[in-house]
Amino acid sequence: MPVLKRHTLLAVLRNSALAGFMGLVLATSGTYAAESKPLVLSVVPRLPMTMTHRDWSPFTHRLAQAIHRPIELRVFNTFAEFEGHAVSGQADLVFANPYQALRLHRKQGFIPLLRDARPLSGSLVVRSTDPITSIRGLDGARIAFPHPNAFGASLYMRALLEREYGIRFTPVYVTTHANVYRNVIHGKVAAGGGVNITLNQESPAVRAQLRVLYETPGVAAHPLSAHPRVPAALREQITAAVLRMREDPAGREILQRVTLTQPVPADYNRDYQPLERLQLDSYYVDTTVAEP
């Protein structure tokens, strides 16, 4: 691997039969030895791949500079590809939803480092002009979700719709939150599941065409987690570097783009282990795709 000069950013977008798309970012504040292995940062696909790469590349570059280590950014076309990659332990760092964080802790011992201070809540949206006023009005309807295992937008939402409201519905999985909102707007489904964070990221024109019919209870937001093979000292370094990004305007903009606007240290036992009580395993669908 060639030596990178100061403030070098290499971004490679390539297609593959498995992931469809992968972004690679290698950055460091100085030079690094040829044998220095990059940390792999994998990000859950809440948005289209190009948007995920756009938002996470500056974060990856700045973090790599701060910790003096190259970082490889990987983004994925589907949840299945992301989960297969993460569960197999190929990632050193992952940004995953709360229930994925729980499962990754079980499977690989991933340790949550940071999360946004703002709670995550699922948002069930309908068209702004739709006269529906009650969840029970969706009985028998088609409802869009990003993926069975998207937490607030699908996994928790589907459980609550069935357990708390007793409605029957046909789930339609459309890959991303952005696709959910557009399927609702274009009348392809009666409603759709998203989360407060991605809904707020949409343009005013998109939000004006949607109305939140129901919100799930809030939970701790997506954490940035580290595989246990990442040394404790490096985990502390990563945490400190992300928290320092709050101290300047450029850093705050970077954090906002990756939905870590108010980063705080995360704790597995406090923030994610309590999700066990929700008993969502029966709603989880194992769709993982292992990398060759």
Question: Can you characterise this structure?
Answer:
This protein has 292 residues and is an alpha/beta fold. The protein is built from 10 helices and 13 strands. Strand 1 (10-14) and strand 2 form a beta hairpin. The chain is globular.
Low-confidence stretches: 1-35
SSE sequence, one letter per element:
EEEHEHEHEEEHEHEHHEEHHEH
Determine the N-to-C terminus distance.
Answer: 22 Å
Count of alpha/pi helices: 10
Oligomer: single chain
Shape from CA axes? globular
Radius of gyration computed on alpha carbons = 19 Å
Helical coverage, percent range: 25-40%
* Main β-sheet description: 6 strands, mixed
Task: Assign the structural class, choosing from mainly alpha, mainly beta, alpha/beta, alpha+beta, or little secondary structure.
Answer: alpha/beta
Mean pLDDT level: 87
How many beta-strand elements?
A: 13
